[in-house]
Amino acid sequence: MIQVEEALERILARVGVLGDELVPLQRALRRVLSENVVSSVDVPPWPNSSMDGYALRSADTQEASTKAPARLSVAGRVAAGHLAERPLGAGETFRIFTGGPLPEGADSVIPQEDVTADEGTIAVPRPVATGDFVRAEGEDVRAGDGVLERGRLLGPAELGLLAAIGRAQVRVLRRPRVAVLSTGDEIADLGGRPGPGQIWNSNTYSLMAQIDEAGGDSISLGVAPDRLDEIEARLRWALDCDLVVSSAGVSVGEHDFVKAALERLGAEQHLWLVDMRPGKPIAFATIPSAGKRALPVFALPGNPVSAMVTFELFVRPALLRLGGHGRLQRPQVRARAEAPIANPGRRRGYLRVTLSVGEDGVYRARLTGDQSSGILRSMVAADGLAVVPGDTTVEAGGTVPVILLREIP
Ligand code: AMP
Ligand code: MG
Q: What pLDDT digit, counting tens, does each position of 356-365 carry?
């Protein structure tokens, strides 16, 4: 039996980053940038007003006071999206609106509420400093600036910035195509009707969701019965995918054929039993293919929680690596146990906990209840997985590392 860390090392050593593609900006949210983006333009492209007001020469206002305001004649008008008709002369001001390009000759803006306007002139009651209410050319981005780097996850702000520098398309890493196969004579897929002794297929749906959430593009291979040829045939369908995830049939029972099916496909197996609970029987193999990178395959255990937790620990990092993410691990926090958190077995426990944040800002963890690997409802309740060594109890008040599965409100 090998340790989780060693298992992950073996996996990541065999998973490389996919190629890239060009996508329109509107389709780039949550994608991973595959280029280093350098701006070819200044943002803003020219100095412009940050207020509705009057553009002027600050020198004309240096002596101004409430008692003796500077009088300037309103000689033009610049709305946003329009240029001034001519340069501004001494003693003049142009009416200007937010976003309007500063006229040549002007160096500052005074907001309209700060002046008194009448009969084509304004009275400026104070000196205006050079640059007041002017957004300088290139103050956000300079032409030649590197603005975003390869590996960056694109969120709303990144997309806004790309648009601001005029990029309508962007190079992103391809989304990994991940095939999901459920196996088991007892598994009936949704839409069908369970026969005697059958249960609904839940793993396909939780795993596909985990894949999509991690930026993959999941594809269902349906449910294969516990038959070597059937499992092999379904796996063949997936040979042009980037990753395959199966569940169940990977133990040492007489009806466990997933490993044998992988062998038939020429797979090399890199690990099998891992020191963890839930989980343990999890196989990772690669299927070599001429002229292509080898296809990584995870054969996860069948119990719904075991499948989800082994996905978290092993498949998710591999998927993120394929997709070019820099950060492969979930954030981990230290939490205080509100009640004892016991891991009675010998294997390292990944125990489902709910988390809360106390007034003191410290995380508190509490077991979700029954930790059996078939109890999906305790997975629903789980905010994180507390990592507890074998045969260990974290007493109430003690601290425990917790892998965060979602944001804590
Ligand atoms: P196995 O790994 O084949 O021994 O399966 C372990 C347990 O997981 C059994 O009780 C199965 O019925 C259950 N199981 C396997 N596959 C699924 C699935 N797709 N959905 C729900 N439960 C499953
Ligand atoms: Mg089975």
A: 999 999 999 9
Side chain identity at residue 369, one-letter code: G
Task: Tell me which of 190, 203, 309 to substitute to probe ligand 1's pocket, judged by most ligand atoms within 8 Å of the beta carbon.
Answer: 203
Q: Which residue from 303, 372, 379 has its CB within 8 A of the most atoms of ligand 1, so it is best to mutate?
A: 303
311, 246 contact by CB (below 8 A): no
pLDDT score for 409: 74
Q: What is the DSSP letter of 112?
A: G
* 166-180 mean pLDDT: 98
Are 354 and 382 in contact, with CB atoms under 8 Å apart? Answer: yes
- Exposed e or buried b per residue across 1-24, where buried means at least 16 C-beta atoms within 10 angstroms of its C-beta: eeebeebbeebeebbebbebeebe
Query: Model pTM?
Result: 0.90
- Reduced 3-state DSSP string for 151-182: CCECCHHHHHHHHHCCCCEEEEECCCEEEEEE
Give the residue from 300, 309, 298 showing the smallest Cα distance to 372.
309
Residue 257 CA to ligand 2 centre (angstroms):
9
Please tell me the distance between residue 11's alpha carbon and the centre of ligand 2 in angstroms. Answer: 24
Going by C-alpha positions, the residue among 272, 216, 213 that lies closest to residue 243 is 216
Give the side-chain half-sphere CA count within 13 A for 110. 25
pLDDT in tens, 291-329: 889 999 999 999 999 999 999 999 999 999 999 998 999
Q: Other CB atoms closer than 10 Å to residue 71's CB: what's the count? A: 14
Rounded-to-integer distance, Cα 196 and Cα 244, Å = 29
Q: What is the pLDDT of residues 1-36, one digit of tens each?
A: 899 999 999 999 999 999 999 999 999 999 999 999
Question: In the predicted model, what is the mean pLDDT of residues 365-386?
Answer: 96
357: Cβ contacts below 8 Å, ≥ 6 apart:
363, 364, 408
Confidence of residue 374 (pLDDT cuts 50, 70, 90): very high
User: What is the Cα–Cα distance from 8 to 239, expressed in whole angstroms?
Assistant: 23
Q: Which atom of ligand 1 is nearest to the CA of 226?
A: 3
What's the confidence (pLDDT) of residue 380?
A: 96
Torsional sign, CA 87, 92, 94, 98: positive
Residue 399 CB partners (closer than 8 Å, separation 6+): 334, 335, 336, 337
What six digits make up the tokens of 339? 């009640």
What pLDDT does residue 232 have? 98
The number of the ligand 1 atom at minimal distance from the alpha carbon of 186 is: 12
